[in-house]
Design brief:
The radius of gyration is 14 Å and the shape is globular. With about 110 residues, it is an all-alpha fold. The protein is built from 5 helices and no strands.
Length: about 110
């Protein structure tokens, strides 16, 4: 729906500003809203639940002192590209972008343990 698309894009604007300012608290709140919007409008309730649980587990590692400002900026750009693909109805691109995003998050999480 149009309302969800507008809300998603507004949330991304907030995330981008917070990432540039390295305001992890504001970024985290906007990131939560971003994922909640996607989950709410996802036609697959099972997938939606998995996304939210995974996101909540990962959040702790994304906003800690070991994560660079640039990583948050780059991750926010990934979020925007995913949202734009979804809004455009390009499910193949959205899937590919999401898989790349998950891999980047995974790499970031694992590098702190090596």
């Amino acid at each position: 729906p149009q309302e969800a698309q507008e809300k998603l894009l507004e949330t991304l604007d907030i995330m981008e500003q917070a990432a540039q300012e390295d305001d992890r608290g504001a970024w985290s709140k906007a990131d939560t809203v971003y994922h909640e919007i996607l989950a709410e409008y996802c036609p697959n309730a099972y997938l939606s639940n998995i996304v939210m649980r995974s996101r909540n587990r990962v959040l702790r590692t994304v906003t800690d002192q070991y994560t660079s400002k640039q990583y948050i900026i780059d991750g926010t750009a990934e979020h925007r590209h995913i949202a734009e693909a979804i809004i455009a109805g390009d499910s193949q691109s959205a899937e590919a972008l999401m898989l790349a995003h998950i891999q980047n998050v995974r790499k970031n999480m694992l590098k702190r343990y090596s």
